[in-house]
Design a protein that fits this description.
Immunoglobulin-like, Glutaredoxin, 6-stranded mixed sheet, 4-stranded mixed sheet
Length: 523
């Protein structure tokens, strides 16, 4: 395209962007979720006394997260739990380190009896597990199928080696052969006589396992070989993902994984590398690599351009808007609300999104901080002096610094662990410091209020953020830094997550050393 055509197009894009800037959505009220209950009860034979919980995992189509619900196992091995579902799906039941799948439907009441000693052997489990109540026959046959299909696999280490060493045309032969072998097992099992629902579930399970194998290859090959993932395969590699989607696919957890692979594989392959809402910045940056608008707007545009199936498009747009809210980009969701209203109709997508928007907006409108939460100003501090300023303000204390960002999902997910660690340490000699980078101030305050994070909070400016990345040689967040009482760095890195036992041990060792030092001085 020549410049005489491109410039008017840019002006038109700018006008559209300005027109789309809506105020907050008015008149919305919280929605009562139209889910139905599922009751799962059971008895574990030969339970281990030290392992008194059983957990059910389900893949959520809207967020893409694996949600879990646990139940206590009493001394007799009995347990019970309740799930709330929009539609039938498979879930994973896990006890200690072993697990098995289960198909559940809204309003089901399922009772399971299994032997903990036989869980590690899938054949023994299939022969001994007992179901009663809803879908008993179906689940008995599902466990039998799970036992058979699990035998058709490649050891993970060997498979990773194939992903690393083989080029795309050679690699494809690997999942192709696996799919063929798994189809043969599936067809033989189906011929034994099973329900239509289980028959469709098995076929979809084999297909989506295959699609996910292929979709993971470019990213893994790039990671193992330290390459740019965008250069491993052309965008046409992902054409196999542009499928027609049936509502029956929702029953299979591998379809939820497929949606994630579609976004981070196919959509990413058709997207520009950068997004900017600054028109001047767009003109100054390389326009071939930069999209004028938000990352959410770009993703929605790509979804509309490359996705032919209407239902798949609805799921993808809903997932994109969920992530927009998960990053606390309230204004961006409000810009896209008319599209949401037009496109997203399925209750299992629409209802949770409306509630998430209203809940998130509440913390923006009236953020309230805990009395033990301190918001510290560092705006006028030169970038190279920020860390020394923080250590000086906490002089004489052990400092556990959490470097995070409001848009970082792993950062936010670790915050409850940070609160737990703070309570376990429970020492006035340890200060928990949260340094937020590359983030909007309103989102920063709203998230601190929402997550109820105590401690000292600093918001880094863009210049300070860049300096922090360079200083600590960071490639991303979250990152964690442990300082001793003199302000010296003891350790740093993402492995010091508050959810890991390592950091608690290190802090306790520093406290012990400090106590020993005081005792020595007194003597």
């Amino acid at each position: 395209m020549n410049n005489s055509i491109k410039f008017p197009a840019l002006i038109f894009t700018l006008i559209l962007f300005l027109v789309s800037c809506n105020s907050k959505v008015e008149g919305l009220k919280p929605v009562q979720l139209t889910t139905e209950s599922v009751f799962i009860t059971g008895k574990i034979l030969n339970p281990t006394p030290e392992n008194n919980t059983i957990t059910v995992y389900e893949n959520d189509i809207l967020s893409g997260d694996q949600k879990s619900q646990s139940s206590l196992v009493d001394s007799s091995g009995d347990f019970q739990m309740k799930l709330n579902l929009y539609n039938s799906k498979d879930v994973l039941v896990k006890y200690v380190n072993n697990s098995f799948p289960l198909i559940v439907h809204p309003n089901d009441s399922i009772h399971i009896v299994f032997d903990a000693d036989k869980m590690s052997d899938k054949d023994k489990l299939a022969k001994t597990i007992q179901f009663s109540g809803s879908a008993a026959v179906e689940n008995s046959k599902l466990i039998a199928f799970h036992s058979e299909i699990s035998k058709i696999s490649i050891p993970l280490q060997q498979y990773r080696q194939y992903e690393k060493e083989k080029y795309p045309t050679d690699f494809i032969a690997i999942p192709d052969s696996l799919r063929t072998a798994r189809k043969e097992v599936a067809n033989e099992f189906i011929q034994q006589g099973i329900s239509n629902e289980l028959k469709e579930w098995i076929k979809n399970d084999v297909d989506f396992e295959y699609y996910n194998w292929l979709a993971r290859y470019p990213q893994n090959h790039a990671r193992f070989n330290e390459l740019d993932k965008d250069t491993v395969v052309p965008s046409s590699f992902y054409d196999f993902m542009n499928i027609e989607v049936s509502h029956e696919y929702l029953h299979n957890s591998k379809f939820v994984d497929f949606i994630s692979r579609y976004r981070f594989g196919r959509i990413n392959a058709f997207s520009k590398k950068y997004s900017t809402s600054s028109f001047i910045g767009y003109l100054l940056e390389g326009k071939d690599n930069t999209y004028f608008g938000s990352s959410t707007a770009q993703e929605i545009e790509v979804i509309n351009d490359i996705t032919k199936d209407k239902f798949l498009k609805e799921i993808l747009i809903a997932r994109c808007l969920f992530d927009c809210l998960d990053r606390r980009e309230i204004a961006e969701f409000e810009k896209q609300y008319s599209l949401f209203n037009k496109i997203v109709h399925q209750p299992f997508l629409r209802e949770p999104l409306i509630n998430k928007y209203l809940e998130t907006r509440k913390y923006f409108e009236c953020p309230q901080q805990n009395e033990n939460t301190l918001l510290k100003s560092a705006r006028n501090t030169p970038a190279e002096q920020l860390i020394s300023k923080i250590t000086q303000e906490h002089q004489g204390k052990i400092i556990y610094m959490d470097i995070w960002a409001t848009w970082c999902s792993p950062c936010r997910k670790e915050m409850p662990n940070s609160k737990k660690l703070m309570n376990e340490i429970n020492s006035d000699k340890v200060d928990f410091v949260y340094l937020c980078t590359d983030s909007n101030e309103d989102r920063w305050k709203a998230l601190i209020s929402e997550l109820e994070i105590e401690g000292s909070h600093y918001l880094a400016t863009p210049d300070q953020s860049r300096f922090i990345y360079e200083l600590f040689e960071m490639s991303g967040v979250p990152q964690y830094i442990l300082f001793d009482q003199q302000g010296n760095i003891v350790d740093k890195g993402s492995r010091l997550r508050p959810g890991e036992s390592l950091i608690k041990t290190k802090i306790e060792n520093l406290l012990k050393q400090q106590k020993q030092g005081i005792t020595a001085q007194k003597s």
